[in-house]
Amino acid sequence: MKRTAMIGHLTPAHAGQTVTLQGWVNRRRDLGGLIFLELRDRSGLVQVQVEPDSAAFADADRLRAEYVAEIEGTYQTRPDSQRKGGLADYEVIATRVKVLNTAKTTPFELEKGDSVAEDIRLKFRYLDLRRPEMQRNLVLRSKAVAAVTEYLDREGFVQVETPMLTKSTPEGARDFLVPSRQNPGEFYALPQSPQLFKQMLMVAGYDRYYQLARCFRDEDLRADRQPDFTQLDMEMSFVELDDVLSTQEGLMAHVFRETMGVDLAVPFPRMAYMDAMNLYGSDKPDLRFDLKFTDVTDLFQGGEFKAFAAAQAVKVIAAPELTRKQIDELERIAKQNGAGGLAWLKRDGDGFTGGISKFVTAQAAELIARTGVAQGGTLLFTAGEWKKAVGALGAVRLALRDLFNLAAAGPQFHVSWVTEFPQLEFDDESSTWTYMHHPFTAPHPDDLDLFGTDRQGEIRAQAYDLVLNGFEVGGGSIRIHDPAVQAKMFQAIGFSAEQARDKFGFFMDALEYGTPPHGGIAWGFDRLIMVMSGATSIREVIAFPKNNRGVDLMALAPSPVEPGQLADVGLSVANSED
């Protein structure tokens, strides 16, 4: 028989009707000769009662947890004493039960999935995905895809698929390489992003492009990274920075409204990279709470406290009252993020006690005035090279957020832009300049003359990151469309003309054939859904993810292959002991 409806689609209008439901047995209880079942499908769960004199009793008696069953019976309200509101007010009195399939005892209780070791959940992912929490996440993801498609189609974007087998190019992470059987000794690379192809679509005149693109990066993993992931990729022609940002704001607001019923305030606030770093110690600051740094470098410059006197930067944050144990843990976090230590003071009246208090008597009044530290509150300092000082204190700021649940006082979701990133950054290991985003990002037009000078570190990029609750969920830029500027950029990062042509010759040729001004962005789609769902890892919003070692524990990949397969592509595996 066909099912009448999915469980979650039953309404009070079905009361008194005969319904046919299909799904999994969530739980079974025997009580006073009665059998009580919970039947579950993707949309919800309902209680089923099977009475001893029912023709369905014998079949119902065979059911166990996770059996697949078909239940026919009368949908009715439960007794007043058992009513809890919503679907829980109704039950099915079974008249027919059919066992559609049996199931072995599961290796973990699905209802306790959150407390089960992740490796077990990933090994039996097809069971883990039955849990309502996981199904909610994937349904949210599906709705977000639908909302994206609806909005971008309405805005005139064209969906185009770009190649999965392409040329290895330096884009910041290691490529996954694929040997070519038909071209021995040569390799494809799986795309880290569709960057060059989407720019060439602008050269080709497609004007507005998008794609939910599968991307691959062979890099160390963490909670918000996977070796294969999805990004929402977009590019637009004949635009300036404000055009791209306003389109993205409309899209993000639409996605939240359609999938979660949440209204985001637009336009999103913007913050320059240097302000984000100086105030929050991060280029993706969590702005759900307002806990800023104060710069006090000038108060200690050339003073008696040697640790601060010659520091390039001295930054301080005003925290609530802290125990010594809490301070020690925050110092561990600061050191873990590059600081030499974490100096501290506790406010006591018009002065300070503890920590470095003996070194700040002359500065006490000014420190209180600048930081606004409360009575009994704690000042936490980092000092040293600017980037390390702000980065370490940024990590301490996030630890304070978690320690005192500071984000709870703000909005559930806070979206902002970080703009005006540096075009270049100096790599101390190689003693060369490299790009901060990628080598196709357009510099600010007012800074073009700084290329090739000792001030090229001051060049501002027309780049922007989309930040949600302290996570970078999107990054993009206005692109270089002038071949001469692209040549300057390649030269600035140490590429000879020959190297640039070897890596990007096809792209450099394309720029010569009438390239419009263009810009775009890519959203980290997995990361976005993670934040929207409240999950703590992108593995919770991907159907079949790898673990933190890059292994698919269910399919057992990666794995060895047959010698004949290696021979076909001219490869052999070296003995790791050699």
From TrEMBL:
GO terms for cellular component: cytoplasm. Keywords: Aminoacyl-tRNA synthetase, ATP-binding, Cytoplasm, Ligase, Nucleotide-binding, Protein biosynthesis. This is Aspartate--tRNA ligase. Homodimer. HAMAP family: Asp_tRNA_synth_type1 (MF_00044). Residues 138-558 form the Aminoacyl-transfer RNA synthetases class-II family profile domain. GO terms for molecular function: aspartate-tRNA ligase activity; ATP binding; nucleic acid binding. Residues 195-198 are annotated as: Aspartate. Its main location: cytoplasm. GO terms for biological process: aspartyl-tRNA aminoacylation. Catalyzes the attachment of L-aspartate to tRNA(Asp) in a two-step reaction: L-aspartate is first activated by ATP to form Asp-AMP and then transferred to the acceptor end of tRNA(Asp). Its EC number is 6.1.1.12. It comes from the Bacteria. NCBIfam families: aspS_bact, PRK00476.1. ATP binds at R217, D218, E219, Q226, E472, G524, F525, D526, R527. It is found in: Cytoplasm.
